[in-house]
Design brief:
eight-stranded mixed β-sheet, four-stranded antiparallel β-sheet, 9 helices
Length: 422
């Protein structure tokens, strides 16, 4: 039986009751009008859909039915840079925090929650920037107990994240995470790498970053500070913040990133002569774009990024995602797509750039990297282009993941020495 249509994907359906009537509660958003994901309900008998959490300045991810109350759910919710657990009414949207106190003050949920049959206990996966992911269980109102110790070998070897905020060029407050290298000397400016997340509807959280896609700990271990910005368009701060990106691709969000690097310089954290930038997917796109807008970065890594929004629209597998940022397709809004395409401004680039891409990427076709490589090569910018066989948008083969990480480190070390030159 068809119940409702939504503009975005729907997840976590659970049967609940609202005003005594059965409803389906789901997590979804409404693209341009109300993009932040929240709890929506649809009567099982048919009728109007309702956004129960409208106006909430965060992002919902998962719902689990509360076995003790048919009008309640447990939910994982991102607010800013942390994901926590709430108990939520599907009638009113009222939220009660239930994240155990001993993990509520830092870190982020990365899996779950699940709830015991009697509703008295929850289980979840939790990590922090300096604490690898472990499975936890907790009675409601009690501290969480770790059930695993997979990360014990990393104890004392990882660096924590600091929440930082700065004002962008148009006055919008931006926040992100800062990771400093171990034993960084006080008062000495550090080499800084800005790593931009994908999406753009996603966010950096205070969670473990120890893989090929998330470079914070890898770079910190080599002596670099790492800034992880959540520019406009990021999730976790409500629909209003996400909507700032619409109709302004490559505009304010780039200034959010660049102003973040400059803010770290102004605060004495970063050395202005040793700034780098990089990212994957949309982070790769924004990297390619930022180096057309400024020359402050001495090295860049463009991972699986878009160079030409027009050709990408016809070659990628989610062209409809552009409809959340543009009023139409390229053939009806050609100039808008061209305006936000890094390749159009390739003659502005002076930053040495490493471009990496999977050969079988259907999300962002590898010809995007190829186009940018050709353009930078022609204008005389130091550039390398590496295509990995059999890999898609995410890398799966261990040998390729290791090779990628080594290349990223080597590129930054080549162009941005961890120790300042005399």
């Amino acid at each position: 039986t068809h119940l409702a249509d939504f503009q975005d994907g729907v997840s976590s359906p659970v049967i609940r009751e609202r005003d005594g009537e059965p409803v389906v509660a789901v997590v979804t958003g409404q693209r341009v009008e109300d993009p932040a994901t929240g709890i929506w309900t649809i009567p099982l008998a048919g009728g109007a859909k309702t956004n129960v959490t409208k106006g909430f300045k965060g992002t919902y991810y998962r719902l689990v039915a509360d076995p003790t109350d048919a009008a309640m759910v447990f939910a994982s919710v991102v607010e800013g840079t942390r994901q926590r657990i709430y108990r939520v009414s599907v009638e009113t949207g009222a939220m009660t925090a239930v994240t155990p106190a001993n993990v509520a003050g830092r870190g982020s949920l990365t899996g779950g929650p699940t709830v015991s049959a009697d509703g008295t206990a929850i289980a979840f996966i939790w990590s922090a920037m300096d604490a690898p992911a472990e499975a936890y269980v907790a009675g409601l109102g009690h501290d969480a107990l770790a059930l695993t110790e997979f990360g014990k070998d990393f104890a004392g070897r990882l660096q924590p994240a600091e929440l930082v905020r700065w004002e962008s060029t148009d006055g919008v407050e931006i926040e992100g995470l800062l990771v400093r290298p171990k034993d960084a000397p006080e008062g000495t400016p550090l080499p800084l790498i800005v790593e931009i997340h994908g999406g753009p509807q996603w966010q950096w959280e205070d969670r473990i970053m120890l893989d090929w896609h998330d470079w914070a700990q890898m770079l910190a271990s080599r002596g670099y500070a790492v800034l992880l910005p959540n520019p406009r368009g990021s999730t976790g701060r409500g629909s209003g913040f996400e909507k700032l990106l619409f109709g302004d691709v490559g505009g304010g969000e780039a200034q959010d990133v660049i102003s973040g690097a400059k803010a770290m310089v102004e605060r004495g954290i970063a050395d202005p002569e040793r700034l780098g930038i990089g990212g994957w997917s949309w982070g790769g796109y924004l990297t390619a774009w930022c180096i057309t807008q400024t020359d402050i970065f001495k090295a860049a890594v463009m991972g699986a990024g878009v160079a030409n929004l027009i050709s990408d629209h016809g070659a990628g597998d989610i062209a409809e995602a552009n409809m959340t940022m543009y009023p139409g397709h390229p053939w009806t809004h050609w100039d808008l797509y061209a305006k936000g395409s890094p390749i159009r401004y390739a003659t502005n680039v002076v930053t040495p750039t490493l471009i990496v891409h999977g050969e079988n990427d259907i999300r962002v076709h590898p010809t995007q990297g190829q186009e940018y490589y050709r353009a930078l090569k022609e204008v005389g910018v130091p550039v390398q282009f590496v295509r990995y066989p059999r890999e898609g948008h995410g890398f799966r083969e261990r040998a390729h993941q290791v090779d990628l990480m080594k290349r990223i480190v080597a590129w930054f070390e080549r162009h941005i020495p961890a120790q300042a030159r005399p």
